[in-house]
């Protein structure tokens, strides 16, 4: 059996920055209690490790009256900054710069009077955060039929969730172009995401089976699973930890490809690689 790791996989720049920030805050030993607003990343093992180090997860600023709240890479609505200031809560901002860029675009064009279209999942924290920079007035496009909600006669600014698949994005843009003429389109899909998706697609064509490692609630991991399943519908396995590998099933394959979501620590990827190699 041959095991091949995808060229681009695992922690992306934005997630690494958020994790490093959190651990640096722990080491700094400031007197303020540390929190993250929502789980720092979509990886339960890392969230548990942070908890052991004294960083608790809160879902709402209302839950605390003081302390240092770390904003995760997904970013937050603009009003969170105001609320924190009013309450005297310290914010440590780990919003990924690629997400900050989308927030700035949305705010700029909203202030100019544009209709804001956000291609993405309305329940994803990144999209909720982006929408919070245009007063929650954005039109969220998750399915192509949602385009009906866009006003044809308004100048429109289009942005896209960083983890969206390029193919889906292009499909949306074609449809929007048919409906609205005054458009400012920003392809804000993150390069890290695109590289991971391209590498996963390429590798899944070359192997007998694919293992995708990453949190079950991680959007970018789920997209990798979808991409791998396009090539290997019955031979793609999504796992969160090494313990979930079924070695009896894997034995029948000659080549296995491995990829990992942007919030999957290298440690977990290495554990999986090691364990499969020990099987050989
Ligand atoms: S996937 Fe891209 S946008 Fe999201 S945190 Fe990573 S680098 Fe930033």
TrEMBL record:
Cofactor notes: Binds 1 [4Fe-4S] cluster per subunit.
Protein residues bound to (2E)-4-hydroxy-3-methylbut-2-enyl diphosphate: 42, 74, 124, 162, 218-220, 263
4Fe-4S recorded as keyword: yes
Keyword terms, alphabetized: 4Fe-4S, Iron, Iron-sulfur, Isoprene biosynthesis, Metal-binding, Oxidoreductase
InterPro entries, alphabetized: LytB/IspH
Catalytic activity: isopentenyl diphosphate + 2 oxidized [2Fe-2S]-[ferredoxin] + H2O = (2E)-4-hydroxy-3-methylbut-2-enyl diphosphate + 2 reduced [2Fe-2S]-[ferredoxin] + 2 H(+); dimethylallyl diphosphate + 2 oxidized [2Fe-2S]-[ferredoxin] + H2O = (2E)-4-hydroxy-3-methylbut-2-enyl diphosphate + 2 reduced [2Fe-2S]-[ferredoxin] + 2 H(+)
GO molecular function, one term: 4-hydroxy-3-methylbut-2-enyl diphosphate reductase activity
Positions that bind isopentenyl diphosphate: 42, 74, 124, 218-220, 263
NCBIfam families hit by this protein: ispH_lytB (TIGR00216), PRK01045.1-1 (NF002187), PRK12360.1 (NF009024)
Function (record text): Catalyzes the conversion of 1-hydroxy-2-methyl-2-(E)-butenyl 4-diphosphate (HMBPP) into a mixture of isopentenyl diphosphate (IPP) and dimethylallyl diphosphate (DMAPP). Acts in the terminal step of the DOXP/MEP pathway for isoprenoid precursor biosynthesis.
Designated name of the protein: 4-hydroxy-3-methylbut-2-enyl diphosphate reductase
Species name: Alkaliphilus hydrothermalis
């Amino acid at each position: 059996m041959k095991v091949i790791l995808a060229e681009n996989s695992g922690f992306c720049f934005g997630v690494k920055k958020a994790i490093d920030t959190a651990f640096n805050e722990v080491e700094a030993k400031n007197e303020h209690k540390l929190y993250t607003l929502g789980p720092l990343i979509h990886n339960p093992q890392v969230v548990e490790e942070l908890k052991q180090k004294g960083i608790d997860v809160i879902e709402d600023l209302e839950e605390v009256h003081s302390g240092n709240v770390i904003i995760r890479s997904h970013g937050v609505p603009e009003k969170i900054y105001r609320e924190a200031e009013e309450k005297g809560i310290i914010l440590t901002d780990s919003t990924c710069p690629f997400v900050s860029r989308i927030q700035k675009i949305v705010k700029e064009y909203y202030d100019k009077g544009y209709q804001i279209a956000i291609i993405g999942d309305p329940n994803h924290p990144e999209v909720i955060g982006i929408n919070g920079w245009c007063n929650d007035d954005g039109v969220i496009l998750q399915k192509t039929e949602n385009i009906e909600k866009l006003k044809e006669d308004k100048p429109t600014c289009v942005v896209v969730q960083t983890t969206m698949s390029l193919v889906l994005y292009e499909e949306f843009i074609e449809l929007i172009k048919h409906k609205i003429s005054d458009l400012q389109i920003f392809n804000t899909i993150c390069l890290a995401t695109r590289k991971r998706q391209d590498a996963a697609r390429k590798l899944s064509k070359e192997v007998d089976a694919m293992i995708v490692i990453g949190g079950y609630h991680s959007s970018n991991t789920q997209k990798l699973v979808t991409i791998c399943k396009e090539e290997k519908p019955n031979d793609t396995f999504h796992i969160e930890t090494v313990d979930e590998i079924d070695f009896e099933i894997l034995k029948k394959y000659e080549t296995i490809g491995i990829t990992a979501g942007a919030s999957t620590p290298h440690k977990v990827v290495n554990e999986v690689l090691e364990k499969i190699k020990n099987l050989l």
